[in-house]
Design brief:
By secondary structure, the chain is mostly helical. The protein folds into two domains: about 120 residues, Rna Polymerase Sigma Factor, Chain: A; about 90 residues, Arc Repressor Mutant, subunit A, CATH 1.10.10.10. It contains eight helices and no strands. The radius of gyration is 20 Å and the shape is elongated. The termini are far apart.
């Protein structure tokens, strides 16, 4: 029992030390980028561009838009990274920047988005589709991805931020500039709409299989 507790304490200490070291690395990397170090920017891009692209793709449902937004995010970050003070992790800061740039994109365009699947590269949503539909996991992923892509931008943003990214409603409200009540209401409506879309998509998949 004593050895177990000692091991647990050691593991926690290691985890804290690793987190501090990662935070310091992030801050130094950000400062190098802010100073115009292109090698640092390339390292920064290599470390984080896949996560940024995945988030943009989840929120837009369109690969072309996600690619364009990813580039916009890193151009914006290159200009503004000097404002990063190390109060949070660099990924947390970058996550907020990405969400804000994507929401600006939504506000600029009222055109209904259609999902592109030409390249077949779509990260799997980190949500439990079985909570919405009781089919096989393989069908669930396909159906859920298509359904999320068909949500209105506002509903999709709240759903992705809450159910995929794990944001609290208070954080979503601050990020989107809405009330907490509105965030909860939009999530509720998004889930209802998803159930409708999932039923339609599941029926279509089943008819194609049969």
């Amino acid at each position: 029992m004593v050895l177990g507790e000692a091991h647990l304490t050691w593991s926690r200490d290691d985890a804290r030390a690793a987190a501090i070291e990662a935070s310091e690395f992030d801050y130094r990397l950000a400062q190098r980028v802010a100073a115009g170090d292109m090698l640092a920017f390339e390292e920064f891009y290599e470390r984080y561009h896949r996560r940024v692209y995945a988030l943009c793709l989840r929120m837009t449902g369109n690969t072309a838009e996600a690619e364009d937004l990813t580039q916009e995010v890193f151009i914006h970050v290159y200009r503004k990274i000097g404002s990063f003070r190390g109060d949070s992790t660099l990924m947390t800061w970058l996550h907020r920047v990405t969400v804000n740039r994507t929401l600006m994109h939504f506000r600029k365009s009222a055109v209904r988005r259609e999902r592109t699947t030409d390249d077949g590269v779509t990260p799997e949503p980190e949500v439990r589709p079985s909570a919405l539909l009781g089919h096989t996991p393989a069908v669930d992923r396909l159906v859920l991805e298509k359904a999320i892509a068909q949500l209105a931008p506002g509903y999709r943003a709240v759903f992705v931020l809450h159910d995929v990214e794990g944001y609290e409603h208070s954080e979503i409200a601050r990020t989107l500039g809405i009330s907490t009540g509105t965030s909860k209401s939009q999530l509720h409506k998004a889930r209802l709409r998803l159930r409708q879309l999932i039923g339609q998509e599941a029926g279509q998949v089943a008819s194609e299989v049969l």
